[in-house]
């Protein structure tokens, strides 16, 4: 689900991918207005599924995993901390609780505020499933059988 949620540089909020138009994407705001707009090739569009957070052990944690950690710590409701009005210390304390081993040199407070704001937007819209469902072993067996029968 999170792969269909987009962030567009220069535009506030998050957007759901609705369809692809001629030289553009048709997106819908993830809020109560549900306004549809085009996103053109000149816009920098990034799927939330492609975003990762740097950690101290030279690896990256997907944004979906960070959202799952927030959900585990704060429940299926928006976090009470305001991303715009909270102090820098409050935002850092929030992020240390959610992802204790984040890279303090590469992850800025503005990034932390954006993660918090995005989480609140998604949960307010009823989106609480962040990580994609893994295939069950039965589905994997069926896939292997199809590949063998085609050979």
How would you characterize the overall build of this protein?
- The protein is α+β, with helices and mostly antiparallel strands.
- 35% of the residues lie in helices and 21% in strands.
- The protein is built from four helices and seven strands.
- The longest helix has 16 residues, at 109-124.
- The chain is globular.
- The two termini are 33 Å apart.
- 18% of the residues are buried.
- Residues 134-151 have low confidence and may be disordered.
SSE blueprint and pairings:
Elements: E1 5-8, E2 15-21, E3 24-29, E4 36-40, E5 45-47, E6 52-54, E7 60-62, H1 63-74, H2 88-98, H3 109-124, H4 137-150
Antiparallel strand pairs: 1-2, 1-5, 2-3, 3-4, 6-7
Properties at a glance:
SH3 type barrels; 151 residues; 35% helix; disordered C terminus; two-stranded antiparallel ribbon; alpha+beta
Concise synopsis of the structure shown:
The protein has 151 residues and is an alpha+beta fold.
Q: If helices are DSSP runs of H or I spanning 4 or more residues, what is the number of helices?
A: 4
- Quaternary structure state of the chains depicted: single chain
Overall 3D shape = globular
Estimate the mean pLDDT confidence: 84
Radius of gyration: 18 Å
Largest sheet report: 5 strands, antiparallel
User: In total, how many domains does the architecture comprise?
Assistant: 2
CATH architecture label of the largest domain:
Orthogonal Bundle
Beta-strand percent range? 15-25%
- SSE-based structural type: alpha+beta
